[in-house]
Every structure is written in structure tokens, then in C-alpha cells.
Design brief:
- The strands form 2 sheets. Strands 3, 4, 5, 6, 7, 8, 9 and 10 form an 8-stranded antiparallel beta sheet that branches. Strands 1-2 form a two-stranded antiparallel ribbon.
- Strand 8 (about 145-150) and strand 9 form a beta hairpin.
- It is about 10% helix and about 35% strand.
- The chain contains 2 helices and 10 strands.
- It starts with a helix and ends in a 7-residue tail after the last strand.
- By secondary structure, the protein is mainly beta.
- It is globular and about 40 Å long.
Length: about 180
């Protein structure tokens, strides 16, 4: 029985790290790498352009960013790979909660945490978690689904993720 408990403890600690100054981090692996924007869109339930207006950390060391939606994009391939779940109707002026693993004060997170005041193009899916978390979304592909907004174009937040995505997009590029 001791072996089973020790294995569980090792497995739980494997995803966390700590530096000598007490700063902790978190890592995770991804299910797939994206070969095209169409593939990323196909795995998404909604694609939004919006600004992060608030942020909080939950008890499980996740960050929930409130994103004020400037526009909702509806590319033709949206949700084809996953089937679109029934979602609340979102539009310009609404906000959506985006849940990410880790907190801004961690030295290492699976994907960079969204920043308050920054605008993004985000590829999202519902968390499908129980309770209040069921109303939240997560970023598809971790870093793959985050593009920073800049004067009508969107730049990949992390360019060396292994995904075969363009470094810059416009909303016209989402049409496939």
C-alpha cells in the first residue's frame, strides 16, 4: 500500500516545481500540435477578439481572465472537429471568462498567462467542468490559440511552440 501512496505523491509533484526563493511553476503537455489555422478553428467553439479587463486566481492555482468581447468571429470550419456544444449567445460588449493553468506569479506556466489591458484573438472551448467553472472557457491548444492584437493584425504569442501556424493573422485569414 505504501508503494501506491508514494506513486500518487510523485505523480502530483511532477507537474509542479519550486525555485530556491519559493517561486513555483507548473508544466503540462499538449494533446496535439496544429498544422493550420483551419485545424485550430475546427477544434474551437468560439473565436473572439477582446481585451482582458480583470483577472483572479482560483483555489486550484488557475487564472481566470475576464475578456471583454470586441467581436466574435465565425470562420466556416468553426467547431467541425468537435461538434458545437450549445453555448450562450455572445456578442460585442459581452464578456467571457478564460481559465488558464497557473498564476501570473509562477516562474513557469504551461502557456503565458493573459495580461490585463492587452487585447487578443482567442480560440476557445468551454471547460465542461462542473459547477461555476462550467461557464468558463479554455484556450484551444494552450499557446496555439493566443494571438496578440495590434492595429488590425494578430501576432502569435509564442512562435516556437511546434505548431505550423502563421506568425501573423487578420480576421480575413480565418475564412480558410
Amino acid at each position: 500500500m505504501t508503494f501506491g501512496i508514494a506513486s500518487i505523491v510523485v505523480a502530483l509533484l511532477a507537474g509542479c516545481s519550486s525555485s530556491p526563493d519559493g517561486d513555483s511553476g507548473m508544466s503540462a503537455s499538449r494533446e496535439k500540435l496544429y498544422e493550420s489555422v483551419t485545424e485550430l478553428v475546427s477544434d474551437s467553439s468560439t473565436v473572439v477578439v477582446g481585451e482582458v479587463i480583470a483577472q483572479e486566481t482560483d483555489s486550484e492555482k488557475n487564472t481566470v481572465s475576464t475578456v471583454a468581447i470586441n467581436s466574435i468571429e465565425t470562420p466556416p470550419a468553426l467547431g467541425e472537429a468537435i461538434g458545437l456544444p450549445e453555448l450562450p449567445i455572445l456578442g460585442s460588449g459581452d464578456s467571457v471568462g478564460v481559465r488558464q493553468l497557473g498564476t501570473p506569479d509562477m516562474s513557469e506556466t504551461p502557456a503565458p498567462i493573459l495580461e490585463v489591458g492587452q487585447s487578443y484573438l482567442l480560440f476557445l472551448r468551454p471547460t465542461e467542468l462542473p459547477g461555476e467553472a462550467s461557464e468558463l472557457f479554455y484556450v484551444v491548444g494552450g499557446v496555439a490559440g493566443i494571438f496578440v492584437a495590434d492595429a488590425g493584425t494578430f501576432s502569435r504569442l509564442v512562435r516556437d511552440s511546434g505548431d505550423q501556424l502563421p506568425n501573423q493573422l487578420t480576421t480575413a485569414d480565418l475564412a480558410g
